């Protein structure tokens, strides 16, 4: 009998574990690159590299600095897209919509040089109008009315 050397492939479960480990390590590297701003989520959404194909949209968004579960959930609710949507299953239209929304500056983020939120200002009644003191109001009303209303204006402020 002669012995022949044949290469026997590893059992299927070991091949699956090896592949899962490769994907896990590649995803970790992708997340590190996003966190360090080497790569943007916008680029990943458009290009869809192999390591991101089976990731959910929320996993991808959460890899950005200052993005938590609440911000991610609110952001995706505004587009309407599920948090569990897999990147590779997104249509071209969904990719373009997500790409466009990620590129917009956030309102209320003045620290980064972006536009400020007007929601706080719109709650104030005197936005856009200069504050007028009691003395200036008296001059506008005239002497006769100022004498009559003078006490009320001083106590109204």
CATH classification, class level of the domain at 12-104: Mainly Alpha
- Average per-residue pLDDT, rounded, comes to 76
CATH architecture descriptor text of the domain at 12-104: Orthogonal Bundle
The succession of helices and strands, N to C, reads HHHHHHHH
Radius of gyration: 31 Å
Structural shape: elongated
Count of alpha and pi helical runs: 8
% residues in beta strands: under 5%
Structural class estimated from helices and strands: mainly alpha
Bin the helical content. Answer: 40-55%
Terminal-residue CA separation: 110 Å
Low-confidence stretches: 112-130, 153-157
Total beta strand runs: 0
Question: What's the CATH topology name of the domain at 12-104?
Answer: Helicase, Ruva Protein, domain 3
Major sheet characteristics: none
Summed up, what is this model?
The chain is mostly helical.
List the helices and strands and how they pair.
Layout: H1 12-35, H2 41-47, H3 57-62, H4 69-78, H5 92-103, H6 119-123, H7 134-141, H8 143-156
Helix pairs in contact: 2-5, 7-8
């Amino acid at each position: 009998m002669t012995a022949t050397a044949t290469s026997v492939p590893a059992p299927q479960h070991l091949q699956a574990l090896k592949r899962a480990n490769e994907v896990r390590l590649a995803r970790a590297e992708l997340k590190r690159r996003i966190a360090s701003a080497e790569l943007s989520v916008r680029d990943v959404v458009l290009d869809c590299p192999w390591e991101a194909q089976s990731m959910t949209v929320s996993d991808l968004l959460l890899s950005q600095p200052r993005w938590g579960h609440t911000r991610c959930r609110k952001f995706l609710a505004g587009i309407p897209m599920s948090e569990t949507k897999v990147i590779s299953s997104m249509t071209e239209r969904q990719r373009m919509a997500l790409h466009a929304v990620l590129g917009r500056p956030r309102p209320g983020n003045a620290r980064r040089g972006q536009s400020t939120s007007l929601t706080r200002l719109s709650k104030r009644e005197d936005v856009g109008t200069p504050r007028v003191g009691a003395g200036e109001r008296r001059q506008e009303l005239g002497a006769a009315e100022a004498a009559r209303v003078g006490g009320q204006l001083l106590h109204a402020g």
